Amino acid sequence: MITTSDIRKGLCIRYSNDIYKIIEFLHVKPGKGPAFVRTKLKSVSTGKVVDNTFTAGHKIDDVRVENRKYQFLYKDGETYHFMNSDDYNQIEVDKSQIESDIFLKEGLIVTIIVNADDSNILSVEMPQNVVLEVISSEPGVKGNTATNATKNAKLETGAEINVPLFINEGDKVKVDTEKGVYLERIKQ
Description:
By secondary structure, this protein is mostly beta strands. Helices cover 0% and strands 54% of the residues.
């Protein structure tokens, strides 16, 4: 059992007869009345996101989890195949358990969160950012740079993001996997 002071992003808790992962939280101390914690919880089984408010000091049933590093091998329909880099065991994960799967590239190392009690896979966490190649992008229009002008670009994984006008086909770009936005061009 933990209390609201132990809440952090990524923590898995047992709530309402299901396992939820905390994706956002905010400790609030109003001038009047007791403190509380606003949370956004994502169901590990259904992917449904719910908002919940816990009063300060509320006891929460946490789930003991293990973080394991796996390498993405390939996608087969709605199933993704991963390999443990240490013992070379392979596992299959359903698409619904992967966050930001549109940025998943073969060979990428991800963190798979596993319930330590029954070894069930709870979720697959992508790295904070990934480097991907731009495979198609319209040429930038000269003189269209009065403000931060962007254009649409398709990446090697099939994802589409907005990039600055100076990005061309073949360039490698760093992408924030959580927000799905361009961060910077990678020099080759």
